[in-house]
């Protein structure tokens, strides 16, 4: 029998391995490039933030105004009214206090009347332009209460709740001291997670003198500072106290660190320092103190610029896109009114 031999080509193992390695490298390179691309996008998506200062102009019947700053020291106005008050006996918007909570929702609270209201105003927004319906939040149940002044909102991220602190005068409730019973204020507070249901109102601070205009500063999970106004004559100045919880108890109320006739403090952190802004209402200007520890304070009035007519609110931080939206809205609103 005769056999016919044919040459059969069998790919070499070396060639197969080379192709396999090339494919793996090619696929890994595509994967690496994709990961790098999304990483860079993620890094760039961290927007620059600006300082935003809520404000009002006397006689406080026009509504919410804003200032903004790049460095926390030099401020410019954003022209226009961004929320006109429509609740309360006098329909005022004084002491506008703002905070950003979960979901990037901004919550605003304010004083609605000098006297007669037993609550404070509230509204919320995602862009600081379009606001929810304004609501009166019940604060005091004692009908002899003279006022509900300067509500200050604080987001407690440890307990996932909002704390609102305000000053009220309830005649005869506390020893008068220097002030008469219709100007003898103490601080009260309530908490809420959603501005639909609220805790009962409780006494927040009785330092033994008439006290208003309190703002809470968190330094760590168990380290809080309270900046407050001693409202007794002739003091009318600012002091600080300390606690391990945002709702106190606060102790070691300090000596005053400002001059007299001061109101409406707000605190923001710039670098490693804290700036405490306040309304010098007799001089009709704004002042500021810088501190790193709330023990030693440095007058920095000469380092700040605040537009004339600005009245006390609070400072928060907003992303560049929100600030740009406010500016565009301001320009559009002003052009419509020309």
Task: Report the span from N to C terminus.
Answer: 110 Å
- Tally of structural domains: 2
Q: Quote the beta fraction.
A: 35-45%
Radius of gyration (CA) equals 29 Å
Unreliable spans are: 1-15, 29-44
Overall strand count = 19
Give the overall average pLDDT.
89
Q: State the helicity in percent bands.
A: 10-25%
Structural class: mainly beta
Indicate the CATH topology of the largest domain.
Answer: Tachylectin-2, Chain A
What kind of sheet is the major sheet? 4 strands, antiparallel
How would you explain this protein's 3D organization?
With 338 residues, this protein is mainly beta. It has two domains: 12-46; 49-334, Glycosyl hydrolase domain, family 43 (Tachylectin-2, Chain A, 5 Propeller). The protein has two helices and 19 strands. It has helices spanning 13-44, 320-336; strands at residues 49-55, 65-69, 76-78, 94-101, 105-111, 119-125, 135-138, 149-156, 161-169, 185-192, 202-205, 211-220, 223-230, 237-243, 263-270, 273-280, 285-291, 298-299, 315-319. The chain has a four-stranded antiparallel sheet. The chain has a four-stranded antiparallel sheet with strand order 4-5-6-7, with no helix packed on it. Strands 8-9-10-11 form a four-stranded antiparallel sheet, with no helix packed on it. β12 and β13 (223-230) form a beta hairpin. The relative contact order is 0.13. The model is unreliable at 1-15 and 29-44 (pLDDT under 50).
Quick summary of this structure?
With about 350 residues, the chain is mainly β. The protein has helices at about 15-45, 320-335, and strands at about 50-55, 65-70, 75-80, 95-100, 105-110, 120-125, 135-140, 150-155, 160-170, 185-190, 200-205, 210-220, 225-230, 235-245, 265-270, 275-280, 285-290, 300, 315-320.
